[in-house]
Amino acid sequence: MSQFIIATHSYLANGYQSSLKFFDSSVNNVQFINAYIDEQTNFTDELSQMLDQMPNEQVIILTDMPGGSVNREAVNLIKKYHCQVISGINLALVLELVLNADQTLSDETIRLAVSQAQKQLVYVNDLLKEDDLE
After folding, report:
1. Confidence of residue 39 (pLDDT cuts 50, 70, 90)
2. Measuring CA to CA, which residue among 91, 69, 84, 59 is closest to residue 9?
């Protein structure tokens, strides 16, 4: 089974945790990191410690913003831990990956989930204008 770490700035990871539990309270393959919420906790150390506990697992790290500090730190750990990193996540992607991770996810499965999640981002006002024209 694939393992996931959702790492975000501030408390956004808590929101993903709450939403996942709403859809499936039995989810047990996801860890959450709320980064930079206090000065005593070192995000990189916390992430490394989690990864150390999953040495023989497929680990997919999901981060909030491409190019953000959380993502940059995760990317720095890809080679050492042989993990995968996806950034710019949304709830559709998280649900698609986590709820279908009974086995190891292939690169193609991950790419397809990312592609489908990208389609979830829409400017609804434009859709309403199209409906008005029809």
Report:
1. confident
2. 69
pTM for this prediction: 0.92
Distance CA(14)–CA(67), nearest Å, equals: 21
Phi, psi of 52 (to 5 degrees): -60, -30
pLDDT digits (tens, 9 = 90+) for 73-122: 999 999 999 999 999 999 999 999 999 888 789 999 999 999 999 999 99
Mapping DSSP onto H, E and C, the string for the chain reads CCEEEEEEECCHHHHHHHHHHHHCCCCCCEEEEEECCCCCCCHHHHHHHHHHCCCCCCEEEEECCCCCHHHHHHHCCHHHHCCEEEECCCHHHHHHHHCCCCCCCCHHHHHHHHHHHHCCCCCHHHHHHHHHHC
Residue whose C-alpha is closest to residue 69's, from 120, 30, 33, 15: 33
Q: Are 62 and 46 in contact (CB under 8 A)?
A: no
